[in-house]
Amino acid sequence: MKTKQIQVYEFKELKPKVREIVIEKFRENNDYPFLHDLLTDRLQELLKKNKIKGEFKLLYSLSYCKGDGLCFTGRFDFKDFSFTINHNNNMYYHKHSTDIFVNEDFYEEDELKEIVQEKIRQEREEEFKGIYYKICDTLEKEGYDYIEEENSEKNIKELIKINEYTFRENGEIENL
Predict the structure, then answer these.
(1) What is the DSSP secondary structure assignment for residue 94, as one 8-state letter?
(2) Is residue 114 within 8 Å of 107, Cβ to Cβ?
(3) With the C-alpha atoms ordered 151, 154, 160, 166, is the resulting torsion angle positive or negative?
């Protein structure tokens, strides 16, 4: 058996250029393990705040590419109306990649009542869509903010320090 000795370095001992490479590798390999939970919890809070009840599926792509964004689908109850949101695109996950439908199950036989109900339905649909788009915008921004924070140099250095990572001279992580 052979014994081979290698030198390992703490992050602060690496050359500045190598430290930059290490930070970039951490950014490239970051899979944001808590992003989905964060966005799911916030979506639940925002739905409750807006008095919207329902089950949802959260869809997003936040990688700074064309078509990126966030949307959610499901069936929801809002102010005595029921809404269904379906995803309509196989490539994109932004707020406009959905169709929002009012479930029509409340019409009367009386023509005057139908006219009034249709006006109320239209108002509720516009109100619901406005809230939906605002929630999507809010969550998308919070998702990108989270990613920015996770990829910040300060955060990566803290992660390296907490985990007591050591490196070879070229920046390769020794103790992963």
Answers:
(1) S
(2) yes
(3) positive
Q: What range does the domain containing 108 cover? A: 34-150
* pLDDT digits 0-9 by tens, 130-150: 999 999 999 999 999 999 999
170 and 93 in a single domain? The answer is no
- Distance separating the N- and C-terminal Cα atoms of the chain: 24
pTM of the model: 0.84
Distance between CA atoms of 69 and 65, rounded to whole angstroms?
9
pLDDT tens profile 51-73: 999 999 999 999 888 888 999 99
Q: Are residues 104 and 176 in the same domain?
A: no
Cβ–Cβ < 8 Å for 84, 101 = yes
Q: Count the helices and strands in the chain (H runs, E runs).
A: 4, 4
Please provide residue 117's backbone torsions phi and psi, each rounded to the nearest 5 degrees: -65, -40
The reply to whether 18 and 41 lie within a common domain is: no
pLDDT on residue 130: 97
Q: Using CA of residue 43, residue 55, residue 62, residue 41, what is the dihedral sign? A: positive
Name the residue with tokens 């910040």.
152
Q: How far apart are CA 57 and CA 63, in angstroms?
A: 19
Stretch 11-37: mean pLDDT: 92
Q: Cβ(132)–Cβ(85) under 8 Å?
A: yes
